């Protein structure tokens, strides 16, 4: 179990550092500017979202990464749904309009978070 965790973490780190991941928030390679590449990372760990509250501006993204050995989702009723994320998988949400978005893991109703989007 430990070994698998380490491999998962290593893969994830690789993806985060090198932008080589399959999840692909680095879909805009070199041309992207600081204006739209600010990425907030929310880790799903110990069945919580960490951090559970993030602030972004319109056009910025939030990257959800499952660091747990169990599956989670990040599901906001009207805005986005990651679907099932397993260990090491990620989902990227791009904020397109201002407002506060509450989201939950559909498997763990007590696992909640918010994204505050401003202009
Ligand atoms: Cu969960």
UniProtKB/TrEMBL annotation:
Residues of the signal peptide:
1-18
The record lists the organism as Solirubrobacter ginsenosidimutans
* Pfam families from the UniProt entry: Cupredoxin_1 (PF13473)
Q: What is this protein called?
A: Cupredoxin domain-containing protein
**Annotated ranges, domain EfeO-type cupredoxin-like:** 28-115
PANTHER family with a match to the protein in the record: BLL1555 PROTEIN
User: Which keywords has UniProt assigned to this entry?
Assistant: Signal
Taxonomic placement: Bacteria, Bacillati, Actinomycetota, Thermoleophilia, Solirubrobacterales
């Amino acid at each position: 179990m430990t070994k698998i965790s380490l491999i998962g973490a290593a893969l994830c780190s690789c993806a985060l550092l090198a932008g080589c991941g399959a999840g692909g928030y680095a879909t805009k390679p070199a041309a992207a500017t600081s204006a739209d590449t600010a990425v907030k990372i929310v880790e799903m760990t110990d069945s919580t979202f960490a951090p559970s509250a993030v602030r972004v501006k319109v056009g910025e993204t939030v990257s959800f990464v499952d660091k747990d050995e169990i599956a989670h989702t990040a599901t906001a009723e009207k805005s986005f749904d990651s679907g099932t994320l397993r260990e090491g998988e990620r989902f990227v949400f791009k904020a397109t309009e201002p407002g506060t978005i509450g989201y939950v893991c559909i498997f763990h109703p007590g696992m909640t978070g918010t994204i505050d989007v401003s202009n």
